[in-house]
Amino acid sequence: MSTPPPRALPSPPSEEEGTAVPPLSGGPQGPTALRPLLTTVLDALHEGASARRGPLPPGGPEAVAARVREAVGAALPPEGTGADEALHTLVRLLAEGAADPAEPLCAAHLHCPPLALATAADLAVSALNPSLDSWDQAPAASALEALVTAALAAEVYPRARTADALVTTGGTESNQLALLLAREQHGTVRLVCGENAHHSLHRAAWLLGLPEPVTVPAPAGTLNPTALADTLTQLPGPVLVAATAGTTDAGLIDPLPEIADLCGAHGARLHIDAAYGGGLLFSDRQRAKLDGLDRAHTVTLDLHKLGWQPVAAGLLAVRDPHDLDALAHRADYLNADDDTEAGLPDLLGRSLRTTRRPDILKTAVTLRALGRTGLGALVDRVCAAAREFAQLIDAHPGFELYDTPTISTVLFRPTGSDDADLARVRRALLTDGRAVLGRARLDGRLWFKATLLNPHTRPGDLAGLLKLVEGNTAR
């Protein structure tokens, strides 16, 4: 057999009448075109972060908007400024005006600083631009997604031989999918969830035309099993119970084994929203907090929280893959019957979206690079930082600690302050660009919320955060 001649590189597109055709990011010549642009982007990111000098830009909304308007000018100019100038100006503007979760004092939300290697992997996805709506648009990406989602589903359901997981944009989409699968399995299902449940569950019930959810008390921040038992006894089926493993406000975990027992006794379907807490599965020290997770029919995960992935990196794990049959859909140009019968994978039933990026690549790179042990070590670091911060608060006479953190969220408030004072201090820190703290209302009071997702945060950073709050409280 003769060896085929080497493939010749395509020639760059010709210029017509002096108008250059911008280069593309894919193909053999794509990396050559990208390399100088990446240098521009990295320089602009560095300059912007240096100019910001803190976790977010100072001045508040009006000042930031004014700087954006001044830098951008005409958003669609008659003539372009060129790739280098446009990239440098706007990337620097974005970096200077960012609330950067890589800054230790940017600790308000479940919004992690992504790992550099995951971000680099995401660049490859943008450069190649596959779409996971048919195999012929993403041959390797579709196979990679199948491998990685199966591995992550096995983390959630270690005793199930056929568990599966779908890639989503995050907890909101995953929760909506969970309700949709329940509806398709059981008809007009009634959602029962705690007062502590994420708002996306109520919105999903509304979007899907389900009855008004039944809300169960969560007096200590977690769903009350006794109240749940009373509700399930009185409520006619079919019922979907949604529990939470890592609440948005305080990072608390519902009593999952007790809830699973009640669902089993009453024939209710169980969904667990572990968008925040699911990352504890990677840690041998922490995963026991999720006992009972594998008894749920569906589980929400978010690896752009305790997984250090760029947005988006959500998953919905399912114990029984047959539940996913409800998502089957046909479009002849994407998954014609004869193509499927010939062996081409059918991807339309893997999402409610049609065009979608292979977001699994960055996760696959992270899992391969760090392994379970490496990811678990990151989880342990942020949980330890939260405990250290809580101890620092508890020992300080000027502050009150809500409780020992369950995951990596710490709630606290200045001693003797009222809710209005707390809200004022939080906004003052935001306006000064000094710190980004969240807010949570529990036990009828407002608390500062520090969500520690940065594994590089040091004890000195946390002590400095307390000093900032203390200084503004005294004003």
From TrEMBL:
A Pfam family the protein falls into: Pyridoxal_deC
Family: Belongs to the group II decarboxylase family.
Protein known as: Aspartate aminotransferase family protein
GO MF, one annotated term: pyridoxal phosphate binding
Cofactor: pyridoxal 5'-phosphate
Renumbered residue ranges of the record's region Disordered: 1-33
Entry-linked SUPFAM superfamilies: PLP-dependent transferases
Alphabetically ordered keywords of this record: Aminotransferase, Decarboxylase, Lyase, Pyridoxal phosphate, Transferase
Entry GO terms, CC: cytoplasm
Coiled-coil region list: none
